Amino acid sequence: MKSHEFINEAVEDESSNEKAQMVKDAWMHVMPNSAVSARKILGGWTFRFFLTKDQSECANGIRDNDPLYYAAHFDRDGTFKESHGYLLVKPTVPNMAYSSERFRLKSTKNPTYEQLVKRFTNVRNFIMSNADKLKDIKFNIADK
Question: Mind listing the pLDDT tens digit for each residue in 116-130?
């Protein structure tokens, strides 16, 4: 009985890995000169999407200074749920380091590659529409 349970877990894990790879591939299709990190957690996958390709493009060489803060989670039930979505921009209030432009978060049950590409294209369009507001960037936004 235990070996049967193990086989089922292995099959679910393989399917989970394929979903994670699909998310990464879709992001890189839309934003080829950027980055995405994925980590397996709580039976699902958590993702952090970056506008920069590596930390050398970030302000002061610090990865957390990436102007895009976009995160999502792929649950065990197949739901792709975005948890954070904003772009750090030039401050609109004096004495502040940054302001933020937020975009609407979405949740999709069992998304296809095409649905993810469409969503990430919308995120890219949001980024490009706010490109003139970005602060302390060391890259050409048009190359992203």
Answer: 999 999 999 999 998
Structure confidence at residue 1 as a pLDDT band (50, 70, 90) = very low
Domains of the chain, by residue range, sit at 2-143
- 3-state SS, one letter per residue, for the chain: CHHHHHHHHHHHHHHHHHHHHHHHHHHHHHCCCCEEEEEEECCEEEEEEECCCCHHHCHHHCHHHCCEEEEEEECCCCEEEEEEEEEEECCCCCCCCCEEEECCCCEEECCCHHHHHHHHHHHHHHHHHCHHHECCCCCCHHHC
Contact between residue 24 and residue 38 where contact means Cβ atoms under 8 Å apart: yes
Q: Which pair of structure tokens corresponds to residue 70?
A: 């976009």
Residue with tokens 């940054």: 98
pTM of the model: 0.82
Parallel, antiparallel or unpaired: strands 68-74 and 35-41:
unpaired
